[in-house]
Design goal:
This protein has 245 residues and is an alpha/beta fold. The protein has eight helices and eleven strands. Helix 2 links the parallel strand 2 and strand 3. The chain starts with a strand and ends with a strand.
């Protein structure tokens, strides 16, 4: 078994709130600088930048878990990761179907662009990506798991766009593979409030929107390798794989 450093919540230039510096090249360079083995690409309601980041990361020997940060009908942010690009594209079709037809205003919200490895713009998303989709938390979870994905409610302790802020509690029967805590909470303090979650898995990530934030918080995974199935086992604490920080 080996320990792998993973920052599983990183935004790119595609997220309207993400810095235009967050190109595939820059993200990978920062990941190398921070000695990360694994990064998760999780733009708001879109997976379209994942491929280019993966291409750049592969050159550098960094594993990418390709995913998205979904904004549910309740305005709860949830991370979802998928093993293959075919499955990722199928989930993108789901997002496109339920994302409201609200036009983005770049001057107000920021640009939403996909760039290639040379930082050329190859696509601009017309719909506002930070909108809530018209699917609720349980529907999103069910679709992620139907596709064999991993479902992690994001920054559950934060005062906005979280399970706690939007629902007032964390549903004990929610079929989450893990829960993400922000850097602002200590795990033990959080579990003192939600003792029924003590058997659950928690991860920490940077939620980076700017290059310098990448790797500021990370999760250490004990696994055989960085494969997607190993990641799944680590979150479940199976066969000696586990989250250790």
């Amino acid at each position: 078994m080996k320990e792998f450093r993973a920052d599983l919540h990183i935004h790119t230039v595609l997220s309207p709130c993400g810095s235009l510096e967050m190109s595939p090249q820059t993200i990978v360079q920062q990941a190398l600088k921070k000695k990360l083995d694994i990064i998760g690409i999780t733009d708001h309601n879109s997976t379209r930048q994942c491929l280019e980041v993966s291409r750049e990361a592969n050159k550098a020997g960094i594993t990418v878990y390709t995913g998205v940060e979904v904004n549910t009908k309740e305005e709860v942010h949830c991370l979802a990761f998928f093993e293959t690009f075919d499955i990722l594209n199928e989930f993108q079709e789901y997002l496109d179907r339920y994302l409201p037809d609200i036009e983005n205003n770049p001057d107000l919200f920021g640009y939403q662009v996909v760039v290639d490895g040379e930082e050329n713009i190859v696509y601009e998303e017309p719909k506002l990506l930070i909108s809530a989709i018209s699917q609720n938390l349980d529907q999103v979870e069910a679709e992620v798991h139907r596709l064999g994905g991993i479902f992690i409610p994001a920054h559950v302790d934060r005062p906005k766009f979280s399970l706690v802020s939007q629902l007032g509690f964390i549903p004990p029967d929610l079929k989450a593979d893990a829960f993400e805590l922000s850097k602002f909470s200590k795990t033990e303090d959080f579990l003192n409030k939600f003792a029924y979650l003590r058997a659950k898995t928690f991860v920490r990530n940077s939620d980076a929107h700017m290059p310098e934030v990448i790797g500021e918080s990370f999760t250490t995974l004990l696994m055989e390798d960085t494969g997607f199935d190993e990641f799944r086992k680590a979150l479940a604490g199976k066969e000696g794989r586990k989250v250790i920080s």
